[in-house]
Amino acid sequence: EKGGYPHFMLKEIYEQPQAIRDTFRGRMRENKGMIKMAGVDDHIDKFINAKRLVILACGTSWHAGLVAEYIIEELVRVPVEVEYASEFRYRNPVIDKDDVVIAISQSGETADTMAAMKLAKEKGAFVFGVCNVVGSSISREAHAGAYTHAGPEIGVASTKAFTTQITVLTLLGLKVAKAKGRISTSDLHMHLEELRLIPEKVEEALKSNDHVKEIAEVYKNASNCLYLGRGFNFPVALEGALKLKEISYIHAEGYPAAEMKHGPIALIDEHMPVIVIATRRGHYDKVVSNIQEIKSRKGKIIAIVTQGDVTVKELADHVIEVPEVMDSMSPLLTTIPLQLLSYHIAVMLGKNVDQPRNLAKSVTVE
Ligand code: M6R
């Protein structure tokens, strides 16, 4: 059942090229510059007229929502807010019929997300579900939706759900941008072509596995870890930290790289591993100066870089390469080595990778 892999998590990490392909299969007509998503097509007026989008989710799905905020704001030019479902539901949120609410949930059974979306519905919003489990409660409660088609995710640590959620939300953003005339046909073609190549690039990123394992060996006994990223990759830093926490029980924090100087930089010394996402197209120079700040405080730097990088390679203690890609799609690649890193550390520490202590696959109680 684990298809020859020692754990579901590793199997699911390796399934990502196929899972992403399954998510866009049948939806993309890249040669025609068209995207088919019945749940969006049937309610396109709601999306066109929305004054803002509000994304509700928990955990990793919330991180996918944050990536989507960056992508959709850029493409559609409408404000996007991303809320923890558990906070949203208890604060009498301002929501009305001109809002489109997107609830993201792998399981489709998360109690807080379900309650938050019901509340948004009561207030008159149009609610769109992005779920993986077909027929799940959230997918049934939504007015419309799009499935991620990632296949069953068994490991408690979410991996392929995250990348397929980002894929679906990218398609949604492109589709709405097109419907609103915010993107030219040639730009749309370009995005779709980039997306079509993502599965191969994820395969390529997975080839870093042995190297990531060597790095895991060096840092497995760390008691803290900092993850930094900017722009589209800021949420990936949060997600990398969550992965490490939940399966290896090492304390980790994700931060936008520029926030470091507002506090966390005080933590940095020679015992602190800092994982920095430093891809070429994503505020590269700014991230390089953040790396210099860490280095001058003797922090250990593990950088995720674009293939062929030279500058960061000279500064960092370790670099992990991912293929070149358009900035907005880089989270689909940069997240891969971070998943592998937490996986290997957890295995080396003898932890129960697929069923970490105190956690359940779907959190059906609040
Ligand atoms: O099924 P959901 O996507 O609604 O689950 C949300 C979170 O409980 C989930 O992502 C959790 O944070 C994972 N264990 C993270 O790996």
From TrEMBL:
Organism of derivation: Leeuwenhoekiella blandensis (strain CECT 7118 / CCUG 51940 / KCTC 22103 / MED217)
GO biological process: amino sugar biosynthetic process; carbohydrate metabolic process; fructose 6-phosphate metabolic process; protein N-linked glycosylation; UDP-N-acetylglucosamine metabolic process
Protein's job: Catalyzes the first step in hexosamine metabolism, converting fructose-6P into glucosamine-6P using glutamine as a nitrogen source.
GO MF, one example: carbohydrate derivative binding
Gene Ontology cellular component terms for the protein in this record: cytosol
The enzyme's E.C. designation: 2.6.1.16
Annotated localization: Cytoplasm
Protein name: Glutamine--fructose-6-phosphate aminotransferase [isomerizing]
Subunit structure as annotated in this protein's UniProt entry: Homodimer.
